[in-house]
Design brief:
Two copies of one chain form a homodimer. The first copy, chain A, is α/β, with parallel strands linked by helices. Helix content of chain A is 40%, strand content 13%. Chain A has helices at residues 21-35, 47-54, 58-70, 91-94, 127-140, 155-168, 184-195, 210-218, 235-241, 264-277, 315-318, 335-345, 351-362, 365-392, 417-426, 459-470, and strands at residues 74-76, 82-84, 178-181, 201-206, 222-229, 232-233, 247-250, 280-284, 309-314, 326-329, 396-399, 406-411, 432-433, 447-450.
Chain lengths: 471, 471
């Protein structure tokens, strides 16, 4: 049976069914992109052409295009037409936070895509326990608990987070310093709104986490790329590039792309700079819990004698992303400003989710869950690393850092990492190209391979598929 | 028994108990404010004095102050000391959205305060049904549903909202035009971020909804007060004041303070202006469902042939505020811009709450609940109006508008409305002063009395208490 040409988007007519035409078209385009029939950067037929070929109204095509553009699949270029987002082999798989499908109405539910970054193991989340705690909390919702939540967060959750941080991340803070947010992105937005003025320079890891950079750019701040080497962000380079920066954003536990830890010496230099320059440091500790060799490092915040670090935690990696909850630990002197900023931007986070998380922590489930995931991720990481070494042999160069949620693999004599990602996508794999994590010209390349959802038994087959894909 | 002097804040020592000292102090100050022992504008003893008198560390007092400042109870004036927020008789009870307490750890749970504005009837929310749907949805959360939600909202919720709006608000839109938000404030923030540049003039109702104005100001937009009369916002005055405005924000169903509807002639003028000026109109339809005399008016959006209206709905009034969900209906041409803006500011809203609301709507509970609340609010409104007329007789001047969630009462020969609110607060009542809803110099005064939580049998007693309070 002949395989369809790689760029052949099926322009066969849509048929009226229980699924609206627009939904059908949406699903068809998305599926074509997922299968590699439509490739990043490829131009789509015009909406008019497509409407005519598919036998639907022009508006139907427009709506599907707009929805896909909104979700990052397509990019509208005005008169130049609509293309598949070039960032698809870049931003999207790169992101720790690729939105997954949740609606069975559009297409069949699927689990995390192989090698997708930034998701916890969705298959082994304690769903029944979580449902039980949620049900109990829902039954308790009454009177005032139905009303507006406290803006800074449910007091019992703030208390629970403060206790957890003291025990598990070496962070000593009061519950009053905890601000519950709708996740890291919202938290960073709050930080930017509270502290930054348009044009303010911000030290940002290069390579670095794309979504965080976008939040800063949306706030009209100016991320200044600071190189990352084997010891994490090169703080000395920051002094040279932007000594007057107002903020530095770092992932000290395991760098968001390279997986390296920020060395103790650099931690101290960073904190000393912040104290003397009157600057602030955002610690994005998204995966600090996931350390497999030796003891995990305490948070940067634990060294923060001068109270210059805003610690950002997320339940997206430690529980699940659909919860949309995270938190900040805010230096005391910034509390009034953050409280005021938060109160004019939101009316607080949903009560039920906050209550459920608080119960989950207080009743000891959280600690047990993290311990279990640590063990599981260590196994999955080892299984994938072993499988890759066996399949690729000498071609593979891979530094396995002691923690994190992905591996960084380089293949001798291979095409560019963006091209490798493109080829892998055609085989249903979703690795991320390291080169796309740079704001400036990329200086390194390789494949970032999320392992948290790679079941051990499947690791050899996935490694073989990857080998076939990248040739 | 002698009553304590009105301004006597109890400076008796705090005793170490299971409740941390800071929590105790926090609760004591808040309770003193609630009881009128500490009055809006009143200066508190210095933190040092208070720490010494209470026998606690200075830091403990600071933390309690900061928390209360963050929640809007106190205002730090630097060297001039800390005062009880003058806005307490202003912003806070004025707000449709006063945060209620949800933590039993801080103080006993209490229901809505008498006459508090902007809350649905918390006593008659179908809690058991809601808990059942939540439990069911929680049990179904698996695999991809645990992952990142779709940024614009759960597809089945967007579809359910579009169907509801068509039937109930006369709004014809596609599910693709619905963007699920974390409530009206977040939605308006999204609108501001997507459409406004610093300094952009925005028509804003005068008087108007304080929290919405704050969102615009936080986005560096410039709200231009446009007077409201018996026919709603005076659109002609807008032409004079700021013909080049980029946006107009209106509450056309029942004005957020005066309760009047925007007349049909003005609706048409407003839409024609928006179309010709290339401006956008935000329709805040927070209480459009609550209309008691005759048929409720269709939404302004239903007349919007030129697609210039961004419709904003909230589940805070139709379900409950602790849910933190609302939605926008976005004109088609703005969809890509809104989708992009939303994707850099949040990663979507929590899946569980969205699923529960979708089920609640689709299974017909939403329609029944709204109908039931409409009947209930009509009774509570009638009972309160009758009680006020009986108690105050000729002194009372009150226009009972055909819809809304509060009454506007004026009392002949009375003190200023701010003073009346202050007196009422001492009797545990929480009316809102109309004069505080103005951005410029207030031109009108009166008491706004939320009736949705006034149980019929209690209405006469509450009216008598109000009479005693205001003298």
């Amino acid at each position: 049976m002949p395989r369809p040409a790689p760029s052949a988007f099926p322009l066969t007519r849509l048929v009226r069914s229980s699924l609206p035409l627009q939904e059908q078209l949406y699903a068809r385009i998305r599926s074509a992109i997922a299968k590699g029939q439509l490739r990043p950067g490829e131009k789509l037929p015009s909406a008019r052409t497509m409407a005519s070929a598919l036998g639907v109204a022009r508006g139907t095509v427009d709506m599907a295009f707009m929805r896909l553009a909104g979700e990052g699949y397509l990019l509208a270029r005005g008169p130049a037409g609509t293309i598949v987002s070039p960032a698809l082999s870049i931003d999207r798989p790169v992101a720790r936070t690729v939105p997954a499908r949740i609606s069975e109405s559009v297409e069949a539910a699927s689990d995390a895509r192989p090698f997708q970054m930034g998701l916890p193991a969705l298959d082994l989340f304690p769903r029944a326990l979580w449902a039980r705690l949620t049900s109990r909390a829902a039954k308790q919702l009454a009177g005032p608990a139905l009303s507006y939540p406290e803006i800074l967060g449910l007091p019992e959750l703030r208390t629970a987070i403060a206790s957890y941080l003291a025990v598990s991340r070496g962070v000593s803070c009061s519950a009053a310093q905890i601000i519950v947010t709708g996740g890291y992105q919202s938290g960073l937005g709050l930080i930017a709104q509270a502290l930054l003025s348009p044009g303010d320079p911000v030290w940002f890891e290069e390579p670095g986490y794309v979504f965080a950079r976008q939040v800063l750019q949306a706030a009209s701040a100016q991320p200044v790329p600071i190189p990352v080497d084997g010891q994490g962000m090169d703080v000395e380079a920051g002094f040279g590039a932007a000594p007057q920066a107002r903020l530095a954003v770092v992932t000290p536990a395991h760098h968001s792309a390279l997986g390296v830890a920020l060395s103790l010496a650099r931690r101290q230099r960073l904190l000393a700079w912040a104290a003397s320059a009157g600057a602030w440091v955002v610690e994005d500790d998204y995966d600090g819990e996931f350390h497999y060799v030796g003891r995990k490092l305490p948070a940067l915040k634990s060294l923060d004698a001068a109270d210059r670090v805003i610690y950002a935690g997320s339940f997206s990696k430690t529980l699940f992303p659909g919860l949309r909850l995270g938190y900040l630990v805010v230096p005391r002197q910034l509390l009034p400003r953050f409280a005021e900023t938060k109160s004019v931007t939101t009316r607080g986070e949903p009560t039920l989710g906050q209550k459920t998380v608080a119960d989950f922590i207080v009743e000891g489930h959280f600690g047990r869950h993290l311990k279990r995931m640590r063990g599981l991720y260590a196994q999955r990481r080892e299984a994938l690393a072993t499988a890759l070494r066996e399949v690729f042999g000498e071609r593979l160069s891979m530094t396995v850092e002691p923690g994190g949620m992905h591996l960084l693999a380089r293949f001798a004599g291979a095409a560019s990492d963006v091209e490798l990602v493109r080829r892998a996508a055609r085989h249903g794999l979703s690795p991320t190209a390291l080169s796309t994590q740079y704001l400036g010209r990329s200086r390194d390349s390789g494949l970032l391979l999320g392992f948290t959802n790679v079941v051990e038994e499947r690791a050899p087959a996935l490694a073989r598929t990857l080998a076939r894909a990248i040739g």
